[in-house]
Amino acid sequence: SGTSKWQSVLGFMWDGCRKFESFVFEGSITSQIVIDCINEIVKMLDKPTVIVIDNAPIHRSEEFEESLEEWEQKRLAIYYLPTYSSELNKIEMLWKKIKHEWLPLEAYQSYQKLTEELDKVLSKIGSLYKITFS
Predict the structure, then answer these.
(1) Which letter, b or e, does each residue of 21-52 get, where b requires 16 or more Cβ atoms within 10 Å of its Cβ?
(2) Pairing of strands 49-53, 19-26
(3) What share of residues in the chain are helix, strand, coil (percent, to 5)?
(4) Which residues of the chain, if any, have pLDDT below 50?
(5) Residues 6+ apart with CB under 8 A from 41
(6) What pLDDT score does 18 carry?
(7) Cβ distance 10 to 37 under 8 Å?
């Protein structure tokens, strides 16, 4: 039997969910990947910002927590959601829309098709694909 391949997406929304940036990886996301992506996001920020995240182990690792002070110096704060509160995480609503509404059914025919369709959707979030939170 073959080894399963999958896409992992790390996404960030800001400015009232008008701006979106995503990073796509094959396989699992590690603490170091999250740190590297946040370091890229910090470069894009022009005002004090809070990142809201869940309590996943990759967000609570020693290496992640060692980065908190450096980010605070760059006017970025991390806010942890209460445990088991994924319904409060707006990006979880976005992932649900992508998986169940925006990805066409044919995206699930092959890994190659999935990567192509996922890239199309991610590149059009904020223009063709929008989500509003009330």
Answers:
(1) bbbeeeeeeebebbbebbeebeeeeeeebebe
(2) unpaired
(3) 45, 20, 35
(4) 1
(5) 12, 21, 51, 76
(6) 74
(7) yes
Tokens (6 digits) for 39: 């370091």
Write out the H or E segment, with its range, that includes residue 22. Answer: strand 19-26
The pTM assigned to this predicted structure is 0.84
Q: Which domains does the chain have, with CATH numbers?
A: 7-123 (3.30.420.10)
Looking at every residue in the chain, the average pLDDT score rounds to: 90
* Residue that has been written with the tokens 């509160």 in this structure: 85
Query: Angle, nearest 10°, between helix axes 62-73 and 31-44?
Result: 10
DSSP class of 4: P
Torsion sign (Cα): 48, 43, 12, 52? negative
